[in-house]
Design goal:
Elements: H1 12-35, H2 43-59, E1 83-85, E2 95-96, H3 99-112, E3 123-129, E4 132-139, E5 142-148, E6 154-156, H4 159-162, E7 178-187, H5 189-201, H6 210-218, H7 223-228, E8 231-241, H8 249-259, E9 268-270, H9 273-286, E10 294-301, H10 304-310, E11 320-324, E12 329-341, E13 347-358, E14 361-367, H11 371-375, E15 395-399, E16 407-412, E17 436-438, E18 445-447, H12 454-465, H13 477-484, H14 494-498, H15 500-505, H16 519-530, E19 534-536, H17 537-543, H18 551-561, H19 564-575, H20 579-586, H21 593-602, H22 607-618, E20 620-622, E21 638-642, H23 650-659, E22 663-665, E23 674-677, H24 683-691, E24 694-696, H25 698-706
Parallel strand pairs: 2-11, 19-20, 21-22, 21-23, 23-24
Antiparallel strand pairs: 1-6, 3-9, 3-10, 4-5, 4-7, 7-8, 10-11, 12-13, 12-15, 13-14, 15-16, 17-18
Helix pairs in contact: 1-2, 12-13, 17-18, 19-20
Bound molecules: 2-(butylsulfanyl)adenosine (IVH).
């Protein structure tokens, strides 16, 4: 790779490319560190990149970029803004990419609502603005708080900055006593170009695209700077409200306009999917002539009562969807292929690219997914990209889909050099040398080293301390990398985190006396670690990073077993082939054979189990909180739905049961408390009768739950 070359040997062309790559890598690292609090490279590696960048610039001063990393003084630090907990979560939208996706969306909703296919659901359709969302809280008509989305649950307080945006009123007339207006902050095209021209003449940073400019401007520490930025705001939604102010999405938006907000004039309502698609095509044609960036169309169910019935999944409403425009594409060359090792040992190939701008963003790497993807044939010999393989040096067409790592859509073999060779996918782990194996039917090759593999061990530790897992303040990915290789105070597995203070005491040089540490920072770290010794069962289970046991599965298992001890006892029984125990586990809706296999593997004697046991010794695990749903007749009952329900869909029934504190299982066992059976109920009802489980019909069910 070019970057390992001695700087004095670089050609001018190579230097130019490398400066661009370095700028991108340093920028990403800044973002990971300052904004996302999730550094992916060590401090030392960061410094090395920065030094190399400077050395190349010194040798080729005319190639120095306008926004060179050498001139940056770090980016806006998010801890500078106070955190705000959103009373009503700020949701994101699920995405659709084709007409078929929209047809299924409409069908899915109708099914959920128990509507017939010939009945129409009414939707609003409006452009999806490519900016950043903002929630603005008004109490008694006065703006009291404005916050960014953050992770959806906790955002940043940007009140003073938001107040400088002309399109955001400071007071509202005739609005509900409490109203949180939500919408998108953006910068128009013309304003963006003027802003960048001003930045150039002031020798300041040039923004890559209007979205970045809007985000950077809103999150300024000095509101006077924000005031100078041409930020605009479209209102399209709301959070907490003291009273309903409309009965439909469309009329609610008209109300927001009456209260003094800008709303998108292109919003319309439609009854038929064909009309939604026509609207999508119409707006896509207008896209280039609009003065702001849009990346798709948002469809929302118009009736607010229907929205309420449909409700939310974990992070997205069921009643809305974003129909994305096709991603922009660009051709570029593969400079090298690197293999990264993930938490579960997967070998993930990444193409390092000649940097290229796609949709306003410089892209320098793309995912190559797995071995088959590179070879052009899947594991049953079916061609991928008509069987075209991918090699280092190939010209590839790439596209960005959302904020995820770019993907490859095509490869041009006509530009391939004769001497190019097929890419040999490693069969040993490049990090630890263990065999890298593929299971039958799996496209992914995995390192078999388990916790022996430092890459896997590090990734698992990073997962263990990540935000949704232990979330230890001051112990992020960057610190994990540092402690992992520390000779005196190493963290090689999760249990080590909790013994760190004790081990520090016996070291000749204490953490507080080390470079970069002090009395306070060391004490804070120990305190943050100690505060996490008491941990929720579900959080612990998720933190372990067991394959196929994500956040939802961990909650599901915890809700089922209630205590860690129950769970471990059950795992032991499942492992010893106790069929009743296995049946119980498989009867949990959402648990299948694949997850069970993975759980059994994790809890079988071996390094992973030993590591879990060592960890558990350090912790005090809180039982899963039993849902207190006042007066709910079905709280904590295990319910199975079977047969056809006529007044609601299975999904709606399931959600309402769970809201009332019940657990819904997929099959009947001796643990089942109640079976709701509709016409056509077969083996499950039969089994319930055999086991003496109570069986009721849909009407009984409705009167039971409506009694709440
Ligand atoms: S509605 C509960 N409408 O897209 C529904 N979102 O990918 C909340 N966005 O976080 C979103 N234009 O920042 C909605 N017309 C629009 C939008 C829009 C842009 C953004 C918003 C959201 C993201 C989800």
């Amino acid at each position: 790779m070019i970057r390992n070359k001695n700087i004095l040997d670089l050609s001018e062309y190579e230097a130019e490319i490398e400066l661009k790559i370095l700028a991108k890598e340093l920028k990403d690292a800044d973002k990971d560190y300052h904004e996302l609090n999730d550094p992916k490279i060590s401090d030392a590696e960061y410094d090395r990149l920065k030094v190399r960048n400077k050395e190349i610039e010194d040798l080729f001063p005319h190639l120095k970029l306008i926004n060179s990393p050498s001139d940056q003084i770090g980016s806006t630090v998010s801890n500078a803004f106070a955190k705000v907990v959103h009373e009503v979560k700020m949701m994101s939208l699920s995405n659709a990419f084709s007409e078929d996706d929209i047809v299924s969306f409409d069908e899915r909703l109708k099914k959920y609502l128990n509507m017939s296919g010939s009945q129409n659901l009414e939707y609003t359709a409006e452009p999806k603005i490519d900016g950043l969302s903002l929630s603005i809280r008004y109490e008694d008509g006065r703006l009291v708080l404005a916050s960014t989305r953050g992770d959806g649950s906790v955002g940043e307080n940007v009140t003073e900055n938001a107040k400088t945006i002309a399109e955001i009123p400071h007071t509202l007339m005739n609005a509900p006593k409490l109203l949180e207006v939500r919408g998108e902050v953006y910068i128009g095209h013309k304003d963006f170009n003027d802003l960048n021209a001003r930045q150039v003449s002031a020798g300041a940073k040039v923004f890559a695209n209007p979205r970045n400019a809007a985000a950077g401007s809103l999150r300024q520490l000095d509101p006077l700077i924000t005031k100078k930025r041409p930020l605009r705001f479209f209102a399209y939604s709301w959070g907490s409200i003291s009273e309903q102010f409309a009965s439909s999405q469309y009329s609610a938006i008209s109300k927001l306009a009456e209260f003094g907000f800008s709303t998108n004039p292109l919003t319309e309502t439609f009854q038929k999917v064909e009309d939604l698609i026509k609207y999508y095509e119409k707006i896509e044609k207008q896209r280039a002539s609009l003065d702001y960036d849009i990346d798709g169309i948002v469809y929302k169910v118009n009736n607010l009562e229907t929205q309420r019935r449909l409700g939310f999944r974990t992070t997205t409403p069921r009643w809305a969807i974003a129909h994305k425009f096709a991603a922009e594409k660009a051709w570029t060359q593969i400079l090298s292929i690197e293999i990264q090792i993930g938490r579960t040992g997967a070998l993930s190939p990444v193409a390092r690219l000649l940097p290229v701008t796609v949709g306003g963003v410089v892209v320098s790497n793309a995912t190559l997914h797995n071995e088959d993807y590179i070879s052009g044939f899947d594991n049953v010999g079916k061609p991928i990209r008509d069987g075209k393989d991918i090699r280092i040096g190939d010209w590839v067409q790439i596209y960005r889909a959302g904020d995820v790592i770019p993907k490859i859509s095509n490869v041009d073999h006509s530009k391939r050099e004769e001497k190019s060779e097929r890419f040999e996918f490693p069969t040993v782990c490049p990090e630890c040398g263990s065999a890298a194996l593929r299971e039958v039917g799996d496209a992914v090759r995995r390192c078999s080293g388990g916790l022996i593999c430092p890459a896997q061990a590090i990734e698992r530790l990073k997962h263990f301390v990540s935000r949704k897992a232990l979330d230890i303040e001051g112990l992020g990915a960057k610190q994990i990398e540092m402690f992992f290789n520390d000779l005196d105070l190493s963290i090689r597995e999760p249990a080590d985190i909790f013994t760190i203070q004790e081990r520090d005491e016996t070291n000749p040089v204490k953490l507080k006396d080390r470079l970069g540490w002090g009395e306070k920072s060391a004490a804070n770290l120990f305190e943050a670690i100690n505060s996490k010794k008491e941990i929720d069962f579900a959080v612990l289970l998720f933190s372990l990073g067991i394959r196929h046991v994500g956040e939802t599965a961990a909650k599901l298992l915890a809700a089922h077993y209630l205590t860690w001890n129950n769970f471990i006892t059950s795992m032991e029984r499942v492992r010893n082939s106790k069929t009743d125990e296995l049946e119980k586990l498989l009867s949990i809706d959402g648990v299948g054979n694949v997850m069970v296999h993975s759980l059994v593997e994790a809890f079988s004697p071996g390094p992973q189990r030993t590591s879990i046991e060592r960890l558990v010794k350090q912790l005090s695990i809180k039982d899963f909180p039993v849902h207190e749903v006042s007066d709910s007749p079905i709280a904590n009952k295990i319910i199975v739905f079977t047969g056809k329900l006529e007044r609601m869909s299975r999904d709606e029934a399931k959600v309402s049961a769970e809201q009332l504190g019940a657990k819904v299982a997929g099959s009947v066992s001796s643990n089942t408390d109640l079976v709701v059976a509709g016409p056509g109920a077969g083996s499950k009802a039969k089994k319930a009768t055999e086991l003496g489980v109570e069986i009721i019909n849909e009407d009984d069910w409705l009167s039971l739950v409506e009694k709440r």
